[in-house]
Amino acid sequence: MLPLRVWTHTYWHRAFRKACYDAKVHRANMKGIVGNVHEGAFSIVVNDGYEDDVDEGDVIWYTGAGGQENRFGGSEPQKTHQDFGHVSNRTLLRNTQTRHPVRVIRGSKDFKWGPFRGYRYDGLYDVTNVST
């Protein structure tokens, strides 16, 4: 895992993920999950990307990656079930084995818990369960 020197609740008012990338909080401009299958997920972005995402503040039901025709996700409806064939989903699975927490960045499309605009780093969350 990369060292991180960003305070919880750091806020980037620009609506672009590049600010998160530059701060080394989430090292991808498009993907919602960053990590690798050896160490697990480093970070996720919660930004209303999937219809089944549920954010309760201290508990997040994160849908994962895949299952849409557009390979970059977005707000398209699910066409197929997700599986662990998708490398991003395997990274989250790995977190349940390593017990490494994942960094959560919320975007402004997460209406209840996200910032008014832009992105905010909301700290470390445990990955306690994964399923397909």
What would you note in describing this structure?
This protein is an alpha+beta fold. The protein has a single domain (about 10-70, about 80-125), classed as PUA domain-like. The chain has two helices and seven strands; from the N terminus they run E-H-E-E-E-E-H-E-E. It has helices at about 20, 85-100, and strands at about 10, 35, 40-45, 55, 60, 100-105, 120-125. A five-stranded mixed sheet has the order 1-7-6-3-2. The chain has a two-stranded antiparallel ribbon with strand order 4-5. It is globular. The two termini are about 25 Å apart. The model has no long low-confidence stretch (mean pLDDT about 80).
Summarize this entry quickly.
The protein is of the alpha+beta class. It is 13% helix and 23% strand.
Q: Evaluate the radius of gyration.
A: 14 Å
- Biggest sheet statistics: 5 strands, mixed
How many DSSP-defined strands? 7
- Weakly predicted, low-confidence segments: none
Average pLDDT: 82
Q: Identify the overall geometry.
A: globular
Which fold does the CATH topology refer to? PUA domain-like
Count of DSSP helices?
2
Beta percentage is 15-25%
Which CATH class? Mainly Beta
Write down the domain tally. 1
CATH superfamily: SRA-YDG
The residue fraction in helices comes out at 10-25%
Kindly report the spatial arrangement of strands forming the biggest sheet. Answer: 1-7-6-3-2
- Architecture in CATH? Roll
